[in-house]
Backbone:
């Protein structure tokens, strides 16, 4: 037989390299698939939605646990013991933007507000009466002057007025004030 020429020698070695690479690539793909499956099954699961976001399901679960009367009245079960439940926060979005007049000058006031309630039923009532609450707060904020809200004391007084206004509306609509606190999460005057 004739000896292989140098040009034919690399061609003969090529099939041996591809035969060796196939199991290596297969093992790498299997390893990646197993790693992905491990992450999927072992990763922490997302927490359940808060009670005020679960809507009707929360009321059904409360009734099943014997707290149906408290949920129907808009109270948490903890209210019976004189203790308050966990705070539920509701941002009033979008931010309030109003013109405030100071004689010749015109200024803008932008306020982001969050309300705190101890009951999911109150949060639902706030959502239901959102238009009425926003209207009242726009009127209240627009009646301010820049001197009224320039100091910390002025902002705290306005915060108290906002709380009273929201509680007035909820009392009129539901019979209970419901909201515990008002928080200004952004306050910009220009």
Residues:
């Amino acid at each position: 037989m004739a000896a292989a020429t140098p040009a034919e020698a690399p061609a003969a070695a090529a099939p041996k390299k591809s035969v060796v690479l196939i199991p290596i690539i297969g093992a790498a793909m299997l390893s990646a698939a197993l790693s992905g499956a491990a992450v999927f099954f072992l990763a922490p699961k997302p927490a359940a939605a808060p009670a005020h976001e679960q809507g009707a399901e929360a009321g059904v679960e409360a009734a099943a646990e014997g707290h149906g009367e408290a949920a129907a009245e808009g109270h948490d079960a903890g209210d019976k013991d004189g203790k308050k439940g966990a705070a539920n926060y509701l941002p009033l979005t979008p931010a309030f933007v109003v013109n405030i007049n100071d004689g010749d000058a015109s200024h803008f006031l932008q306020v982001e507000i969050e309300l705190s309630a101890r009951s999911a039923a109150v949060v639902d009532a706030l959502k239901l009466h959102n238009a009425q609450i926003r209207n009242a707060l726009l009127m209240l904020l627009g009646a301010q002057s820049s001197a009224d809200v320039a100091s910390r004391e002025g902002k705290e007084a306005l915060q108290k007025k906002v709380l009273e206004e929201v509680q007035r509306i909820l009392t009129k609509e539901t019979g209970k004030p419901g909201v515990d606190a008002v928080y200004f999460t952004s306050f910009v005057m220009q």
Observations:
- Helices lie at 8-42, 51-54, 56-64, 68-73, 120-128, 130-142, 146-149, 152-174.
- The CA atoms of residues 25 and 31 lie 10 Å apart.
- The chain is about 55% helix and 20% strand.
- Residues 50-83 have pLDDT under 50 and may be disordered.
